[in-house]
Write a structure and sequence with these properties.
This protein has 221 residues and is an alpha/beta fold. It has nine helices and six strands, in the order ααβαβααββαβαβαα.
């Protein structure tokens, strides 16, 4: 696996790249992509970092792993390529955004415009085998993304962390809530959205209110 990652992150993450677990992870991913169909495309594995510089991180949204359907995953959690049908979780995210801030339901499911404003759209696991959700869950990505979250928490101030679902909430132990705003809720998937009252959580407006209160530009969701 080629680690093509922005310079602002390379400086932060280079010690991790040199650890034995990451070397093993890189070998595993290389083998998986050579012998199976995997997502996202190799050049998109680190898109979350390449579209959102470390210095610009204002919001972190944590997903589980990439979409495992053909043509969906683009390296950003919950995001899909243009012209791809919006997956159910993304539909509910957009519906809440519409309800919370009055933003018209977007035609495109590509969230790169969020990333470029400082929203790190980070999956806990950055790769997946086609048709097999969580197939790369135990291959080392967890250690890497735990480190990323902890590093953001340690080195930055006043970041908003959006933890949706039990999987994301477990990452909360790496975040200093005295320095950052942590908003937790159930997952936006249809399986849990109605049960956990996803609609009406107002996380988007709360995020922008917090950013403005800290002298930062709000996100144009």
């Amino acid at each position: 696996m080629q680690v093509n990652i922005a310079e602002s992150w390379k400086h932060i993450l280079q010690p991790e790249f040199e650890k034995a677990y990451f070397t093993n992870l890189a070998d595993f991913v290389k083998d998986e992509y050579e012998n199976n169909i995997c997502y996202p495309k190799q050049e998109d594995i680190f898109s979350a970092f390449n579209l959102c510089d470390f210095d610009n991180v204002k919001v972190v949204i944590i997903g589980q792993d990439p979409y495992h359907g053909e043509g969906q995953a683009n390296g950003l959690c919950f995001s899909v390529h243009n012209e791809i049908k919006h997956p159910p979780s993304l539909v509910n995210i957009f519906k809440e955004l519409e309800k919370d801030l009055g933003v018209p339901y977007p035609k495109s499911g590509d969230l790169s415009k969020w990333a470029k404003q400082g929203v790190l759209l980070l999956n806990a696991t950055l790769t997946v085998r086609k048709g097999k959700a969580n197939s790369h869950k135990k291959c080392g990505w967890k250690l890497f993304t735990d480190f990323v979250i902890n590093k953001i928490s340690e080195e930055k101030n006043d970041v908003v962390f959006l933890l949706w679902g039990e999987f994301a909430k477990k990452k909360g132990k790496y975040i200093d809530e005295n320095k950052h705003l942590v908003l937790k809720h159930g997952h936006p998937s249809p399986l849990s959205a109605n049960k956990n009252k996803w609609f009406g959580n107002k996380h988007f407006s709360q995020t922008n209110q917090f950013l403005v209160s800290k002298g930062k530009k709000p996100i144009q969701w």
